[in-house]
Please model this.
Amino acid sequence: MLRCALIAATLSVCAASVTAQSPRNFPATALRGEFVITAPPEILLNKRPARLAPGARIRGADNMMVMSGAAVNQRLLVHYTLDLQGQLLNVWVLTPSEAARKPWPATPQEAAGWSFNADAQTWSKP
Model:
């Protein structure tokens, strides 16, 4: 019984470390920007006022959920998606390796003119 518990604990630690190290796949609609939470749901996106959508999800660099109140006044480089009203719906705080992937569009107009390779998670300009 003790041996089974030890094996289960070891497997859960291994699974957690594998999950933390797997690369994240971002959707083609994800844009890059500078994100600062001022007073949730109010934010600054690229130094302009914006708002988190109801039910917005913020994921930290470790891919764990982050409560908006826990990240107030932190300047973060993120990928984000917008809902139909233009509010931020999904936010991913970037790791250094994710931030190094360039170019990445910052506006919908850039994304419309560039090509996205979903497998490689890279953008290319025409």
